[in-house]
Amino acid sequence: MFRLFMEGGPAFMSVLTVLLVGIFFAAWKAPRWVKEIGLFAAVFGSLAMLLGLHQMFSVLQELSRGQEVNGLFDLISPGVLFGGLKVTMIPLIYGFIIYLISLVVRVIQKPRL
After folding, report:
1. Which of 48, 77, 83, 84 could form a disulfide with 56 if both were Cys (CB 3.0 to 4.6 A apart)?
2. What is the full per-residue pLDDT of the chain (113 aa) written as tens digits?
3. Cβ(95)–Cβ(40) under 8 Å?
4. Model-level pTM?
5. Cβ distance 87 to 7 under 8 Å?
């Protein structure tokens, strides 16, 4: 679990973890904020993924400059490319898990029958 935390980027994953703790604190003190905090975690995870993709594509662009190749896979192995995509997905998945937790907490708080 710690490996995923570090691979996902400690800064983004730390903020997402603080938001997860905030959901449980809000469930106790400010129940109306639970869903909003969860939604913010989902959006923040999406932003982290987009920034990771931007960084990954910037590195790929720098690697391909000045080299004449037939295609991207002649320059970079698919394992490295898809490994980078997998790493950029970690904060997105964590953000959406936090959002799902916020929805479950919200349902538990206000059962509607």
Report:
1. 84
2. 788 888 888 999 999 999 999 999 999 998 889 999 999 999 999 999 999 999 988 888 887 776 665 665 566 778 888 988 999 999 999 999 999 999 999 998 876 55
3. no
4. 0.84
5. yes
Burial readout 42-78 (b: 16 or more C-beta within 10 A, e: otherwise):
bebbeebbeebeeebeeebeeeeeeeeeeeeeeebee
Q: In whole angstroms, give the CA distance from residue 92 to residue 53.
A: 12
Residue type, 65: R
Answer whether 5's CB lies under 8 Å from 56's CB: no
Give buried/exposed letters for 94-110 (b at 16+ CB in 10 A, else e): bbebbbebbeebbeeee
Measuring CA to CA, which residue among 45, 50, 49 is closest to residue 16?
45
Number of domains in the chain: 1
User: CA 92 to CA 42: how far, in whole Å?
Assistant: 7
